[in-house]
Each structure stands twice: as C-alpha cells, then as structure tokens.
Amino acid sequence: MAVIIHVDFPHNDVWGKEMAVQMNELAQSINNEPGFIWKFWTESKKDEMAGGVYMFDSRENAEKYLKMHSERLAQFGYSNIRGKVFEINEELSAICKAPLQ
Amino acid sequence: MAVIIHVDFPHNDVWGKEMAVQMNELAQSINNEPGFIWKFWTESKKDEMAGGVYMFDSRENAEKYLKMHSERLAQFGYSNIRGKVFEINEELSAICKAPLQ
C-alpha cells in the first residue's frame, strides 16, 4: 500500500529556478529509486526551510530511501533533517480529493 | 500559486477505518475551506503520529487554515502540533511526476 514521506530541514541558500538548475540531475535520479511514485519539492523562504513530500509504493521502500536521502543531505552539509513515513488513510483522503494512486 | 501544508502531531488512539468513521464529517467540511484543493490524511502507528498533507491555492489561505486547524486540534486535546506551509518548486516537482494542479 502506498505511503507518504515528509522531509524538511533548515535551508537558506538557493530557491526556485536557481534550485531547479542545481538539483535537476538529482531530481532525474530520484525517478529511478525502487518504489518511487512522485515527489513534490517544497521550499519556504519565509521559514528558511526546504524539503519534500513523496509517495512510495510501500513503507519498506520509503524507509530505505529516507535513510539514504537523509545521509546524502547530511553529506551536502544539512543538519536537523526531519523525515517521517506515514500510511495514507485512503477513505478520508478520497473524501478530500487527494490524488491517490 | 498552489502551496503545500504539512501537519503532524503525536497520536495514539484510533487508526484506519475506525479513524475514517470518526472523522468523516470533519473530512467533508474541509472541502469547503477557502482555497482548499486536496488533503492526504496520514497516520503512523509505528511512530504514534497522525497528520496531513494539503494543497491550497495560496499561502494566505493555507496559513489561515493552518491557524484554525491547529487551534481545533488543541481543542481536541492534541499538543506538540507541527505545521508548516511550503511553496512548491514546480520545475523539480514536474521532473518527479508530482500531481501538480
């Protein structure tokens, strides 16, 4: 059953189009991760944070990705990385028009 | 421009179908919030947390909703509610097949 990952971390560097240029190759590569379905790339200049919301096909694949990605972010120099895997309540999400698989 | 809200909080009560019965009316009502587009209802028995990922049409509407919803959750007895509004990096999200509006 599909799951959601939420990740965020303090960030105060590039934003928007500049981020899109820097991260283009990484974004392409995420499409090849086992069980990956989609990712919203998120950023908040107001709160000086960046992150992502992902859908994966299973908790197992999501947790493997989250571990690898958290280590990669730490290598990029990020700290205080917060990442959680959640099951989806499909009945309630369907009422609220969520784009379920 | 559409934004994402992420909310989560400690929860160790009902899950899944039982949650769906209890929260049905609230879920219906969220469809009427100004600027609301969709919500994933999320839950993690493993981490004893529940929450949501929302799309709203603007940061202004998202922040108004988040303030009201955080107060409502506190009235329900929840504490340590974490909620953040993020802009979407549309270029990177499109590469990663996110369901953009």
TrEMBL record, chains A, B:
PANTHER family, alphabetized: MONOOXYGENASE YDHR-RELATED, PTHR39169
Protein name listed in UniProt: Putative mono-oxygenase ydhR
Xref: InterPro entries: Dimeric_a/b-barrel, YdhR
Signal sequence annotation: none
